[in-house]
Amino acid sequence: MVKAIVIGASYGGMEAIRVLLAGLPSRFRIPISIVLHIGSNDIHSYLSMLNGKTAYTVKEAEEKELIKSGYIYFAPPNYHLQMESNFSFSLSTDPKVNFSRPSIDVLFETAAWAYKKELVGVLLTGSNSDGAEGLKTIKRYGGITIVENPETALSKSMPSSAIKEETPSFILDLKDIPEKIVELSGNN
Amino acid sequence: MVKSSLNTFFEKESTDTEDIELSLLLQACYQKYGYDFRNYSKAHLKRRVLQRLKRSGLNSISELQHKVLWEKDFYRTFLQDLSINVTEMFRDPVFYLAFKEKVIPDLSTYAHIKVWHAGCSTGEEVYSLAILLKEENLLSRTRIYATDFNKNVLEIAKQGIYSSKEMELYSDNYLKSGGKGKLMDYCTAKYGSVIFDKSLSRNVVFADHNLVTDGVFAEVNLVFCRNVLIYFDKDLQNKVLTLFSNSLTKRGFLCLGKKESLQFSDWEDHYEAIDKKMKIFKRKYISNG
Question: What is the distance between the alpha carbons of residues A163 and B169, in angstroms, rounded to a whole number?
Fold first, then answer.
């Protein structure tokens, strides 16, 4: 049973996330939490654009907010996003991890602790190595990991680093990822 | 009442051994040293603890617990690991703009102003506030109590010496926050460091205070506590908000971090939000409050 999905993306991530979310069927309700490296820029206009393109409600995650189905949560710029074992979010202003805050590793690792084998972790395009450690943790806790095919990704270094660190459950082109997520969730 | 986190843990019948170990470690710290981290956000603590394991080449949290209990020096290092030390000058410049517009006019009417800067860490925001008050001609009649439970960071705060590497960001923040001069006018550059002018900290009392275990120590017009509460669970947030509320004068101000709020807390109805986005609150007149 998949209870939560976490996604990490960096350079090229805005478009990749849009494509991925647009590929999910409207009946799909599993909560999705996302770290997108975007510097300290405001993400509200991006989020409201996404809101118009998916059946989900897209919002910034708030501290202590309970993770609910039908929602897509984004890490607020300049804060790490963590999941607690009671399936709520917490934020931190801890130092940057992999030169990033929010860091994909922080979300993935804490999500693995909270959801263990009921988690799918997806790592998309990006030009650094954030997320590789986090994916490893997700796998160690029995979750499923998907990495975008570096050959077709806009920026290959983030997916490549993750694959080098540990073989993911699946390496897929972006366009095939939504279908795989639905299949893994037993929801097709 | 604050419920012990140990109970909370077992209620959830967690099967994760590491979570059990973490809970025992926090209990051990509290019983042995009186530092209480049991109601901190668990995800955050676990990350810090696992980092310490890695750095010290330890195999398990239980092993770390043994060292914490028996080796005082190791405990001191570990205490630094758990302390929250990330801060910057004029962090969120828009907040300072709002503060000037919505809090300063009120403060200006007081003959004496008392401020409690809780969880001040290395002091960057203490100096920010002092500069702002100086530019508003209020600093000379203000007393700032700047507190933290970590004596090491308090020492840095007292010195007011920071790396000049950060000054570009800080100067930029200062200008965006509506600064009236140049940030460099308030400090002296020396050997890759900057030293802030002692006149800024003349009315600042740096003191050791633990929000979790210590009580009210002064009545103040303003409590400034940004990006500290996010590290606490709900019970502890409520406890600390009670402490703040008992420290504030009747129409005192409370400034929290950008992502912190009074929403869903026990104290929501006791404050009016005078800037919702920048999290500036003002105590309402409520008897028994």
Answer: 36
